[in-house]
Amino acid sequence: VQLQASGGGLVQAGGSLRLSCAASGRTFSRYTMGWFRQAPGKEREFVAAINWNDDTTYYADSAKARFTISRDNAKNTENLQMNSLKPEDTADYFCAAARALGIPRKDEYQYWGQGTQVTVSS
């Protein structure tokens, strides 16, 4: 599976962005898809995940009530709708794919896309 993230940009605090991740490969529907982010000088952290078997979603506390993860298996894409953005959301955002269900550990993600940069100005 190859992943290509897009949709990042510069937005003012309170604004919205929609990130997309396009996947190649016929088995996209059998992978849990996740989003991670990494701010300068910080560890890459979990943002959200959506399971492949029943579309159950999981969010980091920082993302709950503001971000929505979704997937379209017919189009081999996953999306992250980000609303009410804050300056602390500024980071490179990465999509990733894992066979594990639930909230896979970072090291369980087998495939990673390149980052897409999100900058939120105050």
Tell me, what's the shape?
Answer: globular
Number of strands: 11
| Secondary structural class | mainly beta
Beta-strand content estimate: over 45%
The amount of helix comes to under 10%
**Largest sheet geometry:** 7 strands, mixed
Gap between N and C termini: 37 Å
Mean pLDDT: 96
Query: What is the chain-wise order of helices and strands?
Result: EEEEEEEEEEE
C-alpha-based Rg, rounded: 13 Å
Low-confidence stretches: none
Number of helices: 0
Give a written overview of the molecule.
The strands form two sheets. Strands 2, 4, 5, 6, 9, 10 and 11 form a seven-stranded mixed β-sheet that branches. Strands 1-3-8-7 form a four-stranded antiparallel β-sheet, with no helix packed on it. The chain starts with a strand and ends with a strand. The mean pLDDT is 96. The chain has 122 residues and is an all-beta fold. The chain has no helices and eleven strands. A hairpin with a 4-residue loop joins strand 7 (67-72) and strand 8. The chain has strands at residues 2-6, 9-12, 17-24, 32-38, 45-50, 57-59, 67-72, 77-82, 91-98, 109-112, 116-121. 35% of the residues are buried.
What does the secondary structure layout of this molecule look like, with pairings?
Blueprint: E1 2-6, E2 9-12, E3 17-24, E4 32-38, E5 45-50, E6 57-59, E7 67-72, E8 77-82, E9 91-98, E10 109-112, E11 116-121
Parallel strand pairs: 2-11
Antiparallel strand pairs: 1-3, 3-8, 4-5, 4-9, 5-6, 7-8, 9-10, 9-11
